């Protein structure tokens, strides 16, 4: 299909489709997935802990520079694998870094989760895709040193330092796959390592069954191309250099609001973490 504008694309799938907001919280089976905030807080109080505690960062990356940004490390009670979760590589992809920030507040049953929610502070502050020196997610050549100060810090002081068993990189896209030729739509891109491709398929199936509303079939997630460590993207490099499963998660702006994109991205992260043996500790944490 030829490239189409948003309006033509919208018409082709029916302009009556509403923007997904609160109504999108209803599952296909009719159950309300999300509890309201008060109920969560009451449950938290019954469980004997604070309702909302912002975590302390474990350390600051590039402290004292324009790039400085916080890194969070969540150690679960039981030993297990280590996952690295990155958000905010592109400064205008808010759902990615809101979702990563949520992950930094989660608790898990086993393993360790290292979270860099806002990788590209100059870009986030400027609300632009690129920050300093162009596209940060093109500065990670496989088999070579990353090519900017920030990319080197992310690679050496977050990824290598964590000795990860897998990595998630949370982004947001535009358009709908195949309706808008230049956009990737909703997709999860796995590396070619281990179970990453099948984990991507399982996560997509879960999202499409439980999260994407039935009236938005064109928003079903797809599995993106397998990454072979051949491009200078962080996830490519993790797969190529470290031979670990890595994933890029893309959630579209097309007919969605920020809250919906963030929620879908969080669910993708939660499922991928779970498939790697890192399960969230309690149901009451789900909405945070
Ligand atoms: Zn991106």
TrEMBL record:
InterPro entries: AstE_AspA_cat (IPR055438). Keywords: Hydrolase, Metal-binding, Zinc. It comes from the Archaea. Residues 80-173 form the Succinylglutamate desuccinylase/Aspartoacylase catalytic domain. The keyword Cell division does not apply. The keyword Zinc applies. Its cofactor is Zn(2+). One of its GO terms (molecular function) is hydrolase activity. This is Succinylglutamate desuccinylase/aspartoacylase family protein. It comes from Halocatena marina.
């Amino acid at each position: 299909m030829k490239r189409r504008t948003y309006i033509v694309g919208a018409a082709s799938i029916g302009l009556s489709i509403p923007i997904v907001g609160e109504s999108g919280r209803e599952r296909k089976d009719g159950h309300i997935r999300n509890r309201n905030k008060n109920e969560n807080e009451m449950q938290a109080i019954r469980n004997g802990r604070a309702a909302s505690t912002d975590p302390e960062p474990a350390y600051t990356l590039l402290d004292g520079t324009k790039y400085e940004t916080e890194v969070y490390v969540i150690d679960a009670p039981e030993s297990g694998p280590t996952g690295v979760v990155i958000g905010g590589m592109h400064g205008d992809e808010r759902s990615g870094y809101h979702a990563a920030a949520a992950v930094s507040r989660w608790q898990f049953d086993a393993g360790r989760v290292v979270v860099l929610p806002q990788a590209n502070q100059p870009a986030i502050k400027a609300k632009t895709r690129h920050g300093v020196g162009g596209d940060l997610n093109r500065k990670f050549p496989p088999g070579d040193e990353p090519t900017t100060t920030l990319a080197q810090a992310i690679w050496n002081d977050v990824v290598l330092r964590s000795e990860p068993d897998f990595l998630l990189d949370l982004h947001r896209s535009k358009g709908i796959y195949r309706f808008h030729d230049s956009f990737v739509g909703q997709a999860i891109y796995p590396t070619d390592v281990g179970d990453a491709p099948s984990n991507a398929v399982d996560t997509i199936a879960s999202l499409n069954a439980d999260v994407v509303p039935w009236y938005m079939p064109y928003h079903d997630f797809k599995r993106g191309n397998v990454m072979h460590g051949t491009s200078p993207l962080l996830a490519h490099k993790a797969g190529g250099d470290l031979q670990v499963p890595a994933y890029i998660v893309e959630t579209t702006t097309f007919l969605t609001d920020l809250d919906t994109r963030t929620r879908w991205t969080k669910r993708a992260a939660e499922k991928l973490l779970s498939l790697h043996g890192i399960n969230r500790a309690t149901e009451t944490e789900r909405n945070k």
